[in-house]
Write a structure and sequence with these properties.
Shape: elongated
Distance between the termini: 23 Å
CATH architecture of the largest domain: 3-Layer(aba) Sandwich
CATH class of the largest domain: Alpha Beta
């Protein structure tokens, strides 16, 4: 999962970045609202964590800019404001969830995963069914024809990414950005190897390749 965290408190930002990265998330960061808008407009994120009080543009202004640009990425707002009216204001202005500071990292993580499930599975279930494949988003167990598969973290992330973009082409550049966050260097064939291994574990025909376009899964 790829997150954007917009937070001007560098200690909180560092804490969140480290915590999510340890759990396998890909993280981009911004220290002010203007940079947050820039990154959210330039890149695709699964969820955005947005502080209310920010330099240059506050969280409400950031939300307004994103929603006006038809960016529908789920947004969880963080704020030291904990009044009911403040929560209502944040939600009315386009936030999908709201969490007051101080907060538990585990609660934040659970909220983020819940928002992600809504995007991947509109029925907000804790599982995804795609043909003969079933994915439990809580346990990360994946079965094919009711047989449990042993997937690496990247294979699991690639599977979810492809299912999320089912019936559409996804390029190697899109996969690299989503799974490896455009790291300065990854092995030239790491994506091909990950695709190959996922095919072997599921079905050789599951992921289709299209020269010059990328990969696609269809249902």
């Amino acid at each position: 999962m790829k997150l954007l965290i917009v937070e001007d408190d560098e200690k909180i930002l560092s804490f969140l970045k480290r915590g999510f990265e340890e759990d396998g998330y890909v993280i981009d960061c911004a220290l002010d609202g203007a940079d947050g808008i820039y990154l959210a407009t330039l890149n695709h994120y699964d969820v955005i964590i947005l502080d209310w009080m920010l330099p240059l543009k506050d969280g409400i202004e950031v939300l307004d800019s994103l929603r006006s640009a038809d960016i529908t990425t789920p947004v969880l707002m963080l704020s030291a404001k904990d009044g009911i009216n403040d929560t209502v204001e944040g939600l009315k202005n386009g936030a999908d969830d709201y969490l007051s500071k101080p907060f538990s990292f585990e609660i934040l993580k659970a909220r983020i995963e819940a928002l992600y499930r809504r995007v991947v599975s509109p029925q907000a279930k804790n599982s995804i069914e795609f043909g003969n494949i079933k994915v439990n988003l809580d346990t990360k167990n994946v079965t094919y024809d009711d047989n449990l598969l042993s997937l690496s973290q990247k294979e699991y992330e690639l599977l979810l990414f492809l299912i999320k973009h089912k019936n559409s082409y996804v390029s190697k550049a899109q996969i690299q950005e989503a799974l490896w966050n455009n790291e300065e260097f990854i092995s030239s064939n790491v994506i091909e190897v990950t695709v190959h291994n996922l095919r072997k574990k599921i079905n050789k025909k599951f992921i289709k390749s299209f020269r010059g376009l990328g990969y696609k899964v269809e249902i």
